[in-house]
Automatic annotation (TrEMBL):
Belongs to the bacterial ring-hydroxylating dioxygenase alpha subunit family. Residues 43-160 form the Rieske domain. The keyword ATP-binding does not apply. SUPFAM superfamilies: Bet v1-like, ISP domain. It comes from Cycloclasticus zancles 78-ME. Pfam families: Rieske (PF00355), Ring_hydroxyl_A (PF00848). InterPro entries: AhdA1c-like_alpha_C, Rieske_2Fe-2S, Rieske_2Fe-2S_sf, Ring_hydroxy_dOase_asu_C_dom, Rng_hydr_dOase-A. This is Rieske non-heme iron oxygenase-salicylate subfamily (Salicylate 1-hydroxylase). It comes from the Bacteria. Keywords: 2Fe-2S, Iron, Iron-sulfur, Metal-binding, Oxidoreductase. One of its GO terms (molecular function) is 2 iron, 2 sulfur cluster binding. CDD domains: RHO_alpha_C_ahdA1c-like.
């Protein structure tokens, strides 16, 4: 019987074109990811600043599986801290969103009270009661604040990091990814709503999925059937700093003939017959970006996907909940200056995405299909060779180059 350490050796000839399935189903790997990736030099998406509209607003979320609260202080600055009481470890903030009217965050257990920055202000019975009890004389509240998270507000998207070594946010993302983030956050946004889903799969199966333009016309039949996306469309797959990437696609001029093209391209669609939408207004959109992109999806490793699909705009936050489960939080947004018509288009098109989205529910399902099947086969590997063996982007959409690149970066971060 080989030891666990031997078994966790990346197969010698695998490089980034074959990934051993143990990375998706091993508790030690999961724990090491929390240390090396989520507690390491990475920027993790925490919130849109539009989710913290007023002084006193807060949101509780996670970096990896560490609970974190993001706040807007009385000075209008954004802060974040680990949601773990400095006294005996209880979760302090138990709501997902809200507003602290007095700016205080009080642990329910013994009511230690903190401010928006995470500094400790109040300790009940610090001086005891009627001369009895109390904390030692040298107890110093300044030394017992919450574990703080370094934050940055990048054009309205708030990111946090535990590490002092994390580079500047633009340097971290790279030129293309940061350009496209600014493209989507080019003016003040308005939050339209949030959905959440739990997916019974390892978070990296989903990370692969979002770097995989190859599957889009095959898995998502709605996409293909109604001409929203075809692999032959003009588009690009771009890698930045190995682990971040961008997929863009230009809108098709010939939506009407799309179904015929798809039939030629895709035998499965042909077998399923002709479909028509009972309400075609679902797909009635507006060309709102000068570059003509109908799809623009950026993945910022490890926790954020920021998307434009037609006129739907959303942050997708990936929150691992164990080696074989993660939560996916969708935050839908528009712009503050949207016309009512455009806002309604966004709301209607939001049916395309989210947990039951017409073109995104299969992503959750395929993640679960992978997790189910690899559970006892950790020593086998996948095959990631579409469009060659190099870890790089492509001027087209039929590639797994961005996935190869992510695994190369992952191996370096993890020391595999
Ligand atoms: S654990 Fe929070 S006050 Fe005791
Ligand atoms: Fe997909």
């Amino acid at each position: 019987m080989r030891s666990m350490l031997d078994r966790l050796k990346w197969p010698a000839d695998a490089g980034c074109t074959a990934v051993p399935y143990w990375v998706f189903n091993n508790q030690e790997v999961y724990d090491l990811e929390q240390e090396k990736i989520y507690n390491g030099p990475t920027w993790n998406f925490l919130a849109a600043d539009a989710e913290l509209p007023e002084k006193g607003s807060f949101k509780s979320t996670y970096i990896g599986d560490t609970p974190v609260v993001v706040t807007r202080g009385q000075d209008d600055e954004i802060y974040a801290w680990v949601n773990r009481c400095a006294h005996r470890g209880a979760e302090i903030c138990r709501e997902r969103h809200g507003k602290s009217e007095d700016g205080a965050y009080t642990c329910v257990y013994h009511q230690w009270a903190y401010d928006a920055k995470g500094d400790l202000h109040g300790v009940p019975f610090q001086r005891g009661l009627a001369g009895k009890g109390g904390m030692p004389k040298d107890f110093d509240k300044k030394k017992h604040g919450l574990r703080k998270v370094r934050v940055v507000n990048y054009h309205g998207a708030i990111f946090g990091t535990f590490s002092d070594d994390t580079p500047d946010i633009e340097e971290y993302m790279g030129d293309d990814v940061s350009y496209h983030m600014r493209r989507l956050l080019n003016k003040p946004i308005e939050i339209l709503g949030t959905t959440r889903q739990y997916i019974k799969g390892n978070w990296k199966f989903y990370a692969e999925n979002t770097k995989d333009p190859y599957h889009a016309s095959l898995l998502h039949l709605f996409h293909a059937t109604f001409g929203l996306y075809r692999s032959s469309q003009q588009g690009e797959s771009i890698v930045n700093n190995k682990v971040h990437c961008l997929i863009w696609v230009k809108s098709s001029e010939e939506k009407k003939s799309a179904l015929d093209d798809v039939k030629k391209e895709n035998l499965r669609t042909m077998q399923q017959g002709n479909y028509a939408l009972a309400d075609e207004s679902l797909l009635a959109g507006q060309q709102e970006f000068e570059d003509g992109h109908s799809l623009d999806i950026l993945s910022m490793f490890p926790s954020l996907v920021l998307q434009q699909i037609q006129n739907t705009l959303a942050f997708r936050q990936i929150l691992p909940k164990g080696k074989d489960e993660f939560e996916l939080v969708w935050t839908y947004f528009g712009y503050k200056d949207d016309t009512e018509e455009l806002r309604n288009i966004r709301l209607k098109q939001s049916n395309l995405i989210g947990p039951a989205g017409l073109i995104s529910m299969e992503d959750g399902e395929s993640t679960e299909l992978c997790q189910k099947a690899i559970v006892r086969d950790g020593e086998y590997t996948s095959v990631i060779e579409m469009d060659g063996k190099e870890p790089e982007g492509a001027k087209h959409l039929v590639t797994e180059g961005m996935i190869r690149s992510m695994w190369q970066g992952y191996r370096e971060m993890m020391g595999f």
